[in-house]
Structure formats: structure tokens, C-alpha cells
Amino acid sequence: MADNDNKNSLRSNSSVLVDGPSRAPARAMLKAVGFTDEDLSKPLIAVAHTWIEIMPCNAHLRDLAEHVKRGIRAAGATPIEFNTIAVCDGISMGTHGMRASLISREVIADSIELTVRGHLFDGVVAMSGCDKTIPATVMALQRLDLPSLMIYGGSIQPGRFGDQQVSIQDVFEAVGAHSAGKMKLEDLKRLEDVACPGVGACGGQFTANTMATATELLGISPMGSNSIPATDPKKPESAFQAG
Questions:
Q1: CATH fold of 43-157+200-242, please?
Q2: Distance CA 3, CA 18 (A)
Q3: In the chain, which residues have pLDDT < 70?
Q4: CATH 3.40.50 segments of the chain
């Protein structure tokens, strides 16, 4: 009896959504996308992330989400994944597109909250990757007040330019050097091609990495998880443990 009581308490939201004869239409629609009766008898855990193809900070979150989902299943619950939008400060900077950046934080927070409330999830693992998506996901989790945590996609690895490690900051500085006549256009192009060698957020103590550190200290992210770089072999296991 105690096990059943505990199971029911973990499903206090989703049981309203999927249990009983009157919820047959809801179950029918969930079965259309692959969920089974066994899946729906377990706590439903949202895996919410800011995957988008336009920037390295978030481009790998769908892949990382698979490891989170494995962890959720191993813990005896059912993961359900969805994503929302993101605006890249680094790409939009210097254009009128930058005006959309801060607004995107509110849209992300609102969309995660609406999806979780609208589908009566029992818990949330949120995944983020850049300046506005980290506070946005945390804002949503605070409003929802469910068992939840946020994990960070991780920082990018450094690029290599000649015998030096470089990051996106070096590219911004190189633009200034070129405009001042101190760097050739072809050297700027060479630097541009190697500064960002793969996925992950900007390599520096800018907003993304600073916020990721803060969320660990606040206990919203598992301690030690956010400091693992995006392409580090330990990242999938960290995501699994978060799930």
C-alpha cells in the first residue's frame, strides 16, 4: 500500500490528465504518438529544452535530451520532450535583431510554463545553453514549483589559430584590429573559420557560463554538472544522472 501511495503522490498532476474512463480521449491521443498504458501509469516528466539549429550553444540539446530521457526511464518515470525558441546574442549583436534577445527570455519562460501547466506534468528537467535561455528556464521552474532542475549544455571547446587557443572573443577583437588596419582580411577569415570548433556556449566567463555557475550554487542544477564542456565525454553521463 505504501508503494502505491508513493506512486500516486508522484503522479498527482498527470493522474488527473490520464486516469479513469473519462480520460480515454486523452489517452487515445497520447497513444497516437507512441505512449503505452504502461508509460501513462508512471509519473510524466517534461524534458524541456531550447534546441535550435542557428547557434552552437543550443544545437546539441536534442542529442543530450536523449540521455536525460534514458535517466528518467531508469528512475521509473516517463519522459516527454519538447523545445522552445532562442535568440543568439553573439549572432544578432550589432544588428536590430539584438532587440529581440531580452524579449526571448520571457517567451521561453512563458512557453515552458504553459506547456507544463497545460499538460499536467509531474516534474521537469529543463535544458539550456546561452545567455537568455538559462535564466528563462529557471524562471519557468520557479513559477511551476514542481520537482525540477535545469542542466546547462556546456561551454564550447577552444579553437586553434596558429599556436594559440582562441574563442569568439578573439574574433570580435580581430574585427576591430582589421578596421584599424592591424589585421589582414584573409587573417580575419582564417580566424573566423577556426574560432568555434563545435557545439557549446561562448568560451569565456560571459553571461552563459556565469549563469550556469550561479545555478549550481543555488541548487537548481546538480553540483558539478554545468562545468562539464559541451563535447566532453562525461556530458552524456551527467545528463543521464540528471534524468
A1: Rossmann fold (3.40.50)
A2: 20
A3: 1-8
A4: 43-157+200-242
Q: What is the pLDDT of residues 218-238, one digit of tens each?
A: 999 999 999 999 999 999 999
Would you say the pTM of this structure is higher than 0.70? yes
Q: 172-207: per-residue pLDDT in tens? A: 999 999 999 999 999 999 999 999 999 999 998 899
